[in-house]
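Budget justification, computational time. The allocation requested in the original proposal was used primarily to generate structure tokens for proteins on the priority list. As evidence of use, we reproduce two of the resulting records. The first is shown immediately below.
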Amino acid sequence: MKYNSLFAIACLWTLSACSSTTLIETTYDSSTNEHSTRVYTKYYDAGDWLVPDQLGASVVADHMKRRVPIVYGAQRSMGALGPDDSFAQAKITIYLWNFTDSSKEVSDIQLTSGGQSLQIDRKPVSAAPRSRTQIDMGVIDVFDSAKNIRVNVIYTVNGERLEQSLNLTRRTRDELRTLFGPNGRLPYPWHARLGELR
């Protein structure tokens, strides 16, 4: 009996640590009488040039929502979810893509989204030549059912102030395979130049 109790506690602890971050959207087409389902992952992203043909920047959001799967399902079926269940958090990461033969000094990075602000208060980041550099920005609040996150990012690159406005798209499972899987085509304007990076 003692071991059964320990096993039950271990199972509950494991379930409480699980994360459910997918979003499932089912639509019905009355003209064809067919249902379709899209499964969104926890990843959002967008990217564009900061300095055309030289330095690109992409922003990635990792949707985070901790739930106890069995308890959450029971709460949802009984209509017992509270206001806080509408919200989640997103971990924001910026990637700098340097396609030149010289380093780019990037500093004073500030990201804003929905009235929230993240800022890097440390020494400048050096985007090495012909490489991708990762910058962990922090966490923002988002709607749990969001499919897009609008962000504005301000950078200082080699002393010049640059601004970027992006609409991060939440990727479906199919899009992740197509865009980021083997032989995928990144959804950024430098997708054909990845061979130039080290």
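The second record produced under the same allocation is shown here.
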Amino acid sequence: MVPPSRALIKQAAGLIGFFMLAGCLPPQADYSFGLSTERITGFLNAPGLTPAQGTPLIVVYKFHRSFAGAPPQGPVLAPTAHVVHVARSGAFSIGIPWDVVAANVFFIAPGRLTEIFQFKRTLGMGAITYRAQLKPITNWRDHYYTFLNPQLQHLIVEKGYRLSPGDLRQLSQWLDFQDRRLAGQGAGHPLKTPVRSLDPDERAGAGKMRPAVPPAKR
């Protein structure tokens, strides 16, 4: 009996690894076969959300492979972030450039528990479809002031994520609207801190990468 070639063993191991990783996808996600993932599309669903509560929000952190000054154990990952447009229907589309090896997608809506989709690039996995189903929670005020508010403020003040001026403005306006809405419902939260707007000099330096703090965990 002829033993299997080394190339065949590698292909079999790759297929096994692929199906193991594909099986780790959450039930909200689906995928098609392809050489590599170039785009994540889908829908954000927040039943019962009213204009008085505000708009939904999608923020994506992308981790880019950087070979500059890479240590012996592998390449350094450089994070960036941006706000994703959400259509009235809830549809969204996120491009995944070739150098992005992983991404964390935050699905946010007032009064709903934030949902996070963690993507990892896998050979053989093509386009990904994700349907976020945001569930209402009664203590969203605490969720906002202890998790969402610090998370989004960090994006605004940390220049290493290289957010565009439009994204900075959208995040600031969204936070300001929620702060005023919650203040109208009762006393403010003791952990609340004001959003600091970036001055022109800080915005000009947003393209210079600095070590960025990883996204906060819930």
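A brief technical remark on that second record: The helical segments are 6-22, 140-157, 165-185, 200-204.
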